[in-house]
Amino acid sequence: MPRMSSAAGRLDVARVRGLFPALSDGYVHADGPAGSLVPENVAHAVGSVMRMPIAPRGGVFPASGRAEALVTGARAAVADLVGGRPGGVVLGPNMTSLTYAVARALARTWRPGDEIVLSRLDHDANVRPWVQAAAATGVQVRWAEVDIETGELPAWQYAELLTRRTRLVAVTAASSALGTRPDVAGIAAQAHAVGALVYVDAVHAAPHVFLDQASLGADFVAVSAHKWCGPHVGAVVADPDVLEYLRPDKLLPAPNRVPDRFETGSPPYELYAGVSAAVDHLAGLCAEAAGSRRDRLRASMAAVARHEGGLFDWLDQALRAMRHVQVLGEPERCTPTLSFTVAGMRPRQVAAELARDGICAWDGDFYARELFDALGVNDDGGAVRLGLMHYNTADEVGRIVDAVAGLRPR
């Protein structure tokens, strides 16, 4: 059983679970890395906006003013979440689409012979847009490799990878497949020393750790609200001065100001209300938290880390003790996420058996194609992934452990 945290800064999981109508289905939702459940305040915020007059921004009547307020509110909320500036928050449909847009814009500043450094640990959304942009511009891609035994991304290798020709380093703040949390700050410091920009995928890190863009050393931070109890909206956060010199594809009549020129099409204003509500949800997870929303986020995410960490230690140790289970990697710092295989069973079979026991778990490569190719598991269907969230309980971890212990080839 996990160690219980002290009352100070405690996360009351019973209270938290009461905020999620979806938990009434009786399943153990251990599929958080693919997308979290949505609390009632987020659903209510989205529904409320859809019941009121909303018009495009820029008008002189109240419905247009509401749209402006929703955009401003969402940008402020995301800025609070990552420690950025609202004027540098670009909103969009998802992290992948936004990363493609930034990659195309940055690639216009690259020249043949330039280099970029990518990581085999990353989700393909922080790999393929850069690979394709590099191919289109004659830029060389250099790779940071993963230690296949530990699942770590050693920061020391960047000293050999970075040169004065390096224009960009793209790296994850946390692997959504193994949970690995690399030394992003150390990598970023090396990148900045040679004049390179740093693009950090914080999609998987955001639900589990308190983010601070300055401490990470990130020029760009990408997040997705549906991973932290919000709607399907993505965001990329940068210093407005960095965005100012980029020229993304846009329609001629669309605004040319930053960050608006990076946002194409009609915005989903109702979902932006959900983004703000989701950040408020995270900030309210610790009942004792006080101060600004940023202060409350700091306290709440510390409580989340203690709660999830205790549960995950139990889950991780229990699965590693099972002779028929192989847990991939063993990173020193990680989110409450792991991937594993079961002797004699395909990952899809394992996921199906867990589903029969009322446990939601994904199988496959989780878009970590480079990583799973390096680990050598893709030919066998990848792995099974379990990921905990702040609404998971010790009883649920017990159910998972018992279910995995009982897995045997049919």
TrEMBL record:
Gene3D superfamilies per record: Aspartate Aminotransferase, domain 1, Type I PLP-dependent aspartate aminotransferase-like (Major domain)
Entry superkingdom: Bacteria
InterPro entries linked: Aminotrans_V_dom, Cys_dSase-rel, PyrdxlP-dep_Trfase, PyrdxlP-dep_Trfase_major, PyrdxlP-dep_Trfase_small
Aminotransferase class V domain mapped to chain residues: 30-399
Database matches in PANTHER family: CYSTEINE DESULFURASE, PYRIDOXAL PHOSPHATE (PLP)-DEPENDENT ASPARTATE AMINOTRANSFERASE SUPERFAMILY
Protein known as: Cysteine desulfurase family protein (TIGR01976 family)
Organism: Blastococcus xanthinilyticus
